[in-house]
Amino acid sequence: MVDDCLKYKNFYLKHQLNNRIRIISPVLANDRERGYIFEILLKKRPEITRVNSVFAIGSVTIEFDSRRLPKKNLLILLDAVLGNIGQKQHTITSQLKKEFNGPLQEVDLAVEGMSCASCALLIEMVLNRDARVKTVSVNFATETLSVRGQLSKLEVIEKIESLGYSALLIDTLSQRKKLIEKECNRIDAARRRFVWAGLLTVPVVALVMSMSPSPWMHWLQFILTSQVVFGTGKPFFDKAYRLSKQRTANMDTLIALGVGSAYAYSLPALFRRRGHVYFEAASTIIALVLLGRYLEERAKGQAGEAIRKLVDLQPQMANLLKNGVEQIVDVDEVQVDDLLLVRPGEKIPTDGVVVYGLSTVDEAMVTGESMPVVKSIGQTVIGGCVNGSGVLHIKVTATGMNTVLAGIVHMVDQAQSAKLPIQKQVDKISAVFVPAVMGVSAVTLVGWLLVGVPFAFAFGNAITVLLIACPCALGLATPAAIMVGTGQAAKKGVYVRNGESLEVASKLNAMVFDKTGTITEGKPKVSDIFNLSSMTEAEIILLAASAEYNSEHFLGRAIVAHAREAEINLVESAYFYSETGSGIRASVSEHIILLGNQSWLKSQKVRVSALSVQADVFAEQGKTAVYMAIDGQEAAVFAIADNQRPESAAAITRLHQLGIKTMMVTGDTEKTAYYIAKRVGITDVIANVKPNEKLEIIRQLQTEGYLVGMIGDGINDAPALAAADVGFAIGSGTDIAIESADLTLVQGDISKVTETIELSTFTLRVIKQNLFWAFGYNTIAIPVAALGKLNPMIAAAAMALSSVSVIVNSLRLSK
Questions:
Q1: Sign of torsion over alpha carbons 210, 212, 213, 217
Q2: Per-residue DSSP letters for 58-87?
Q3: Which of 413, 514, 717, 749 is catalytic?
Q4: CA 580 to chain CA mean position, Å
Q5: What is residue 186's predicted lDDT score, i.e. its pLDDT?
Q6: CA-based Rg of the chain, rounded to a whole angstrom?
């Protein structure tokens, strides 16, 4: 740490380390566009590895390669860039747009101002027109957007804002929390708009019901209705106007046309003092639509409860220790390697490692572990978890979207934003829905005039057609159910990585299980050691554990743990090689050590006949045998016991009741595999399987017509998890297994697989009910309106409530 605050021309140097500096610049404060330009310009320099900005205060942290870009040069560069941004912002923005042609990247944003599902389709359509966009998905229910392509974040934001919507960052949990606060404010604002429109509309309707033809009554209706139309109804017209400039239309266009036509048609009658006026229709339509929007916002808020609870886990502030002095800072200002103080009962601000103190930490909300976990020096902690009774000093290891909690939130986000195959068909219909309705409305007007009815009657029916149509219900049918379904899965400890897997899970008819760490607890312990060598058992353990020290395999870790329990000091291996699914080869204390299964040692030209007899005995007891050879000679067998999970047998029985074929596919020996399989009720067992063979088994089942689910936890399971129709990863498993899977069982409870399949079935049923209602409603309502059997006000009420009914039906999933 150097000077606390060193002044440069365009920024203050807040603090610096060897390869990281933090600056505060008034040029960037509260100016998001300049901030993005600054980030992009810096990231174009290969010497700069990371840029993290907090635009609200103009704070930027820069990580860089000090060998390629000395600090002095970097500071000169920053001053120059900031100066150019202030003087030539427009020029730089245009230049960046022309120059940016980098690698594919993903941009995730929240979108404010969408009023219906056709808004989401419009944004998708506009973004898809850009050749640099590869894929884009806008979800009306979650109000989020995901773009994959060669567009910068700034360009995506500009395109969205050109359509009249607002784009907001969701790069950190704090930003997500602010969005949730905005959502609450938006619900309150929707309620206020409805109440105000309702209070003005009631007297308008009352005047109509009084049956008084007095001209002053019409003038009073005009005054009150004008307040509704140009006050609470103004956003409908603003949105319709902006869309018309883009040559597009959505639900707001229909409402603006219907209300505007009714209001405009009434004006000549008002001034001529004869003829029918539709002021009450115009004001009532807006009031009823605003009621529907308010109820919809409330229901969407309830549907997003799962994300809200996860985001609320992270505290807003952190206790930063700087030169021994405590400072309370915003959690977004915390940097990697910072030292944080966590008092008893406080939430841990971000991921880190304990450098001082001893305490217990409640990780239930993140990992599902019901009992508090003891944390001491050197152990990792997860942001969002609650500290127990001790004081901890933690060194930050991850911030922002790199934390475990942010990863979980992002995973749930992606699942809720995903589009199922059935939704893609709905989108195609919704894309032509609004223009089609406008056409039907025009045909209705012309048709009635041709049969000789009065213009007022024909005009009223045309307006009713505009108002009764509702693409919102169509657009919400699938995403609302997915949002609630994936949220409910998260509550059960199942994190869904993509929405499609939620649909496919309901159709699974075969389930393939790994054994170790999946059907068993994944907590193997060395129970027996059979020693053939001339060495002592302690020497055997020393060599084996030292060789396995670099291994991530369950069995290798069990041997290392056994050595530590025996207080045997390990030595560093000079060489280490791992053959996934088979074993390892290492050089320890000038000995060549081989550890693994029988076929691994045989492939290394080691005779194992003497060890095999004892290994078979261990296998018949349900224990896994790990063969050991020293300098090419068979030496020992480690028997490793791993108890089955308590819920395994019941979970597999339930799968059989659902008519799902179960199979155990494991790299373990046949005797061990059959011993465990018999205890849990699986009859189909394939043992001694290598990772590529697991993949072939999955593909063979798919060739036979099965929809296959795969449950595993290890690196060797990753190819099969990725190839399965739905992959379930055990939450305590390896990162690569979790990344390869579609769903993660956080607590490792395989009974959740059955619950997920049942939830998937229920979710799909709700989606079909929603779509049936949405299609059925429009199929019946539009012809009825065209035939003149509906009043415009009744049509507006039905349209407003149709989308609400879809969300309310989806909320049944939360029960």
A1: negative
A2: TEEEEEE-TTTS-HHHHHHHHHHHHHHHHH
A3: 514
A4: 31
A5: 78
A6: 33
Residue 353 banded pLDDT, cuts 50, 70, 90: very high
User: Would you say the pTM of this structure is higher than 0.85?
Assistant: no
| pLDDT given for residue 2 in this prediction | 37
Query: How many other CB atoms are found less than 10 A from the CB of residue 659?
Result: 7
Q: Enter the tokens of residue 295.
A: 């109820």
Q: Which two tokens stand for residue 574?
A: 């000079």
Euclidean distance between CA atoms 228 and 613, whole angstroms? 89
pLDDT for residue 719: 73
* Cα–Cα distance for residue pair 527/521, rounded to 1 Å: 15
Kind of pairing between the strands at 684-686 and 661-665: parallel
Residues 120/475, Cβ–Cβ less than 8 Å? yes
503, 420 contact by CB (below 8 A)? yes
CB-based burial label for 807 (10 Å; 0-12, 13-18, 19+): buried
Helix (H) and strand (E) counts in the chain: 28, 31
For 262-280, the pLDDT digits (tens) are 788 788 878 877 667 778 7
Please list, in sequence order, all residues whose beta carbon lies within 8 angstroms of the beta carbon of residue 185, skipping any fewer than 6 positions away.
Answer: none
Give the Å distances, CA to CA, from 651 to 509, 662, 675.
15, 11, 18
Distances (CA, A) of 85 to 10, 36, 91: 10, 11, 9
Quote the tokens at residue 183. 């959502």
Strand, coil or helix: 149? strand
Q: Which residue has the tokens 């199979």?
A: 663
CB 415 within 8 A of CB 498: yes
- By the 8 A CB rule, do 469 and 796 touch? no
Using the predicted structure, report yes or no on whether residue 92 has a pLDDT greater than 50: yes
Determine the Cα–Cα distance for residues 30 and 168; give it in Å rounded to an integer: 13
CB contact at 8 A, 500 and 652: no
Name the CA dihedral angle for 309, 310, 314, 315, rounded to a multiple of 10 degrees.
-10
Distance CA(288)–CA(497), nearest Å, equals 38
- The band of 423, judged by pLDDT with boundaries at 50, 70 and 90, is low
pLDDT band at 29 (very low <50, low <70, confident <90, very high): confident
In three-state secondary structure terms, 606 is: coil
DSSP per-residue letters across 9-49 = SS-EEEEE-SSEEEEE-TTTTT-HHHHHHHHHHHHTSTTEE
- The number of beta carbons lying within 10 Å of the beta carbon of residue 4 is 11
Confirm if 288 and 380 have CB atoms less than 8 A apart: no
Strands 166-169 and 133-139, by their bridges, are unpaired
Q: State the chain's maximal CA–CA distance in angstroms.
A: 116
Handedness of CA 121, 407, 412, 386 (dihedral sign): negative
Do residues 532 and 627 lie in contact, with contact meaning Cβ atoms separated by under 8 Å? Answer: no
Q: Which amino acid is at 209?
A: M
Burial class of residue 15, CB neighbours in 10 A (0-12, 13-18, 19+):
middle
**Rounded to whole angstroms, how far apart are CA atoms 451 and 701?**
64
Helices (H), 377-470: 404-417, 421-450, 455-468
Mapped onto helix, strand or coil, the DSSP state of residue 128 is helix
- Closest-CA residue to 778 (of 798, 805, 758, 751): 798
The Cα–Cα gap between 596 and 505 comes to: 35
| Dist CA 480 CA 485 (whole Å) | 8
Let me know: does 800 contact 288? Beta carbons within 8 Å.
Answer: yes
Burial call 69-101: b when 16+ CB within 10 Å, e when fewer: beeeebbebbbebbebbeeeeeebbeebeeeee
Annotation says 514 is catalytic: yes
The sheet carrying 386-387 orders its strands as 373-375, 359-362, 386-387
Angle, alpha carbons 415-421-426 (nearest 5°):
105
Question: How far apart (Å, rounded) are the C-alpha atoms in residues 466 and 475?
Answer: 17
Other Cβ atoms less than 10 A from the Cβ of 627: the count is: 24
Angle at 570 between CA 565 and CA 571, to 5 degrees: 175
